[in-house]
Amino acid sequence: MRVIPYGRQLIDEDDIANVVATLRSDWLTQGPAIERFERKVAAHCGVKHAVAVANGTAALHIAAAALGFQPDDLLWTSPNTFVASANCARYCGADVDFVDIDPRTYNLSVARLAEKLAAAAQTGTRLPKAIVPVHFSGQSCEMEPIAALAKRYGIAVLEDASHAIGGSYRGRPVGCCEFSDLATFSFHPVKIVTTAEGGMVVTNRTDLYERLLLFRSHGITRDAKFMEGESHGPWYYQQAELGWNYRLTDLQAALGECQMNKLDAFVARRAALARRYDELLADLPLTLPWQHPDTANAWHLYVIRLRLDRLQKTRRQIVEELRSAGIGVQIHYIPVHTQPYYRRLGFRDGDFPEAEKYYAETISLPMFAALKDAEQEKVVDTIKGVLK
Q1: What percent of the chain has pLDDT over 90?
Q2: Which residues are part of the catalytic machinery?
Q3: pTM: predicted TM-score of the whole model, two decimal places
């Protein structure tokens, strides 16, 4: 039985030809394809700088490092995200806390953020060094009020835009960094565009850009202006920071460069599929995705919420029956604070009730640019049968 997955890449002959051309070139890594890919992403976002890395987690990690996270610093993010959004601070030895989600967008709640910041300031407790709003499912967070709060309290903003390349907020592309210091993307195969594995950090701040370049490649520089003392010659380098080997290969960058040419088409197809889901699922006991009027969704995910009070089955039963029928549904996300690692740091069930309620009801349906209308209809027909 062929399974319809919840997400997958769309690779065509142009992508393959671009990768093959790179294989036949003089460069397999640290070559010109990486810079071309970076320039293409930077141009799409309208930012000054882009740094390609090995994956989305690496992007978050070097972004946190560039912001100067150290032990005793604090990062706040959404509990409704993949663990990397929080782990990036832990890699730097810093602490993590969470802000509950908005019940309609499933993004970090601006109201809860304002309350939490005001309470911390009033009681004299530690404020975060940075906030990581996560653009869940491809829909941008409400970045302008988040940025206003961050400015008021002297906090940096790092956007986790792993789901959202191709989306927009108030007419500006996600990743433009108008309301943030940095933004990160993921190019995993289930994302909007892919490099197989890969990520990117974008920023308008040259000081952060220079640190990102260091952290991407062992903390090493060959630029004499960043060295202590004089250079010994054209072969010379210095390790200025403790960095990591987070470089992307030219093969991956060649794929990403070509995929970016189709970004608009990919997002348009995903939006069309989302509209069809809205129509085909309208009469079922489900809560369908709500779209904030200030955003245009990139539709990495299409998530439904089960109205369990109107159903005779549990969420687990429904998921297992759909998977048994060849519909590869998924759950996004298990709240980060409920993971064993974070429980050992002191978090408990009930800490962020909106995220926990959302998790208990949610299912992610197949959503990818290559999904055919007939396959989508099979998904919907199967859902109808299972819910009956």
Answers
A1: 98
A2: 191
A3: 0.97
